Amino acid sequence: MLTFQKYELGALGTNAYVVVNAERTNAIVIDPGVADGALMRKLDGLQVEAILLTHAHFDHIGGVDTLRKRYKCPVYIHSLEQDWLTDASKNGSLRWKEVTPPVTTTAADLFLEDGQTLSLVGETFQVMHTPGHSPGSVSFLVGDLLFAGDVLFHRSIGRTDLPSGNQAQLVRSIVDKLYVLPDNVLVLPGHGPETTIGDERNGNPFVRG
């Protein structure tokens, strides 16, 4: 059975996740916004198979290069945001100068597409393209765990007032891709506490199922 640990990182409190296989030998990292010492101590001694990015805003990618070099693992991102990693004007870090210096990373190794499946840490991760917060936002479903990035939060949704945001598109992503999942699916968002699909479908004030 997979286990996961959340790390709340950086000035914006971005959730990074370390997902470990049942044998506690292999791991993946989702959205390492900062190269955090506690996160890396968790990974040391494990075979890190991949870094998965739900999207390429600066607060989700700041630790990518440090982790990639340390653990020699590939980085996955949706192709629509491949150039955001290398361009601080696109990933938002130039916009938030009071929060962060310019953030860039080297290019991703592999690109994600809607409906793709990834075999990682002995499990199958389903890739769902869930745009709206950003054009290349994706969510990862593995069993009854949904790593939702900045698409769906506890009683909230991702902001769409940033460049390339689209509220109508975000609502469609949530209704058509996420709210059709079973009630018990645990939503692990990019910020804030976990929730469930059922709780949000019934109680989210921004998007009702």
From TrEMBL:
Pfam families: Lactamase_B
Domain Metallo-beta-lactamase: 13-191
Catalytic activity: 3',5'-cyclic UMP + H2O = UMP + H(+); 3',5'-cyclic CMP + H2O = CMP + H(+)
GO molecular function, one term: metal ion binding
Superkingdom field: Bacteria
Alphabetical list of CDD domains matching this protein: metallo-hydrolase-like_MBL-fold
TM segment ranges: none
InterPro entries associated with the record: MBL_Glyoxalase_II, Metallo-B-lactamas, RibonucZ/Hydroxyglut_hydro
UniProt keyword terms in alphabetical order: Hydrolase, Metal-binding, Zinc
Job of this protein: Counteracts the endogenous Pycsar antiviral defense system. Phosphodiesterase that enables metal-dependent hydrolysis of host cyclic nucleotide Pycsar defense signals such as cCMP and cUMP.
PANTHER family: HYDROXYACYLGLUTATHIONE HYDROLASE GLOC (PTHR46233)
Protein name in UniProt: MBL fold metallo-hydrolase
Organism: Candidatus Cohnella colombiensis
